[in-house]
Design goal:
146 residues, alpha/beta, Rossmann fold, elongated, binds S-adenosylmethionine, methyltransferase, O-methyltransferase activity, Isoflavone 7-O-methyltransferase-like, S-adenosyl-L-methionine, SAM-dependent_MTases_sf
Length: 146
């Protein structure tokens, strides 16, 4: 398991924060420091990809708490697409809470491959900068990082 908060690959780029802030290229901090963008790095390093997916999934379990007080947000919707939805932790919780709601998890192909669909939960791989599946609502749940 990779410990993101202490791993030199993931934390090392912070040493170049100043150069990144004052630099003029369009790369992310990780991209500038490592010469490869983060998502591409994950794609070719399965150990990091697996740990990253698990970390995101762990954080997403908190959606259970939000659903208790914000469930109304989803009522009346027929379909929703979770863009960048990772391995589907958030969408799974929503799909179970609202069995009539069709939930689509959209993420990079390598993230959603081999994930099991259910009655109202499906997985679609692709690039959100090109197109996303049609749905009545879009969920975009992100984490802040550089
Ligand atoms: C910070 S994670 C958020 C995951 C999830 N939404 C959550 O809250 O736990 C960002 C997600 O976006 C996905 N992603 C990155 N670039 C993407 C792209 N071009 N198209 C689709 N998904 C992408 C990553 O694979 C990752 O699962």
């Amino acid at each position: 398991m990779v410990k993101y908060a202490t791993d030199p690959v993931t934390m090392g780029p912070l040493n170049q924060l100043k150069a990144w802030i004052y630099g003029e290229d369009n790369l992310s901090l990780f991209g500038m420091a490592k010469g490869i963008e983060f998502w591409e790095f994950l794609n070719i390093n399965p150990k990091y990809q697996k740990s990253f997916n698990e970390a995101m999934a762990c954080d997403s379990k908190m959606i259970n708490l939000a659903l208790r007080s914000c469930g109304l947000v989803f009522e009346g919707l027929e379909s929703i697409v979770d863009v960048g939805g990772g391995i589907g932790t958030t969408a799974k919780i929503i799909s179970e809470a609202f069995p009539k709601l069709k939930c689509i998890v959209f993420d990079l192909p390598q993230v959603v491959e081999n994930l099991l669909a259910t009655n109202n939960l499906s997985f679609v791989g692709g690039d959100m900068f090109k197109s996303i599946p049609k749905a009545h609502a879009v969920l975009l749940k992100v984490h802040v990082y550089i």
